[in-house]
Amino acid sequence: DERPPSDESHGSRQSSFRDPFGHRWMLSMQLRAMSIDELDAASDDFTVTDG
Q1: Which of 14, 29, 33, 46 has the greatest number of beta carbons closer than 10 A?
Q2: pLDDT tens for the 51 residues of the chain, in order
């Protein structure tokens, strides 16, 4: 479940990793504030597929 840092369409950078004790950490940092219209436009590019 490790995920290298990546910039997301909703304006944040996210990453996840496990520490030596097995705990999973998820980090997120807001890169820029987005208006509702910008978030709606970004979500139009997001598609969910099954399987």
Answers
A1: 14
A2: 799 999 988 889 999 999 999 999 999 999 988 888 888 887 776 655 555
Closest C-alpha to 31, from 15, 8, 2: 8
> Where exactly are the structural domains of the chain?
3-44
Provide the whole-model pTM: 0.61
Q: Both ends of the chain: CA-CA distance in Å?
A: 17
Beta bridge partners of 18: 24
Rounded distance between C-alpha atoms, residue 17 and residue 49, angstroms: 24
Q: Detail the DSSP E strand segments found in the chain.
A: 3-7, 12-18, 24-30
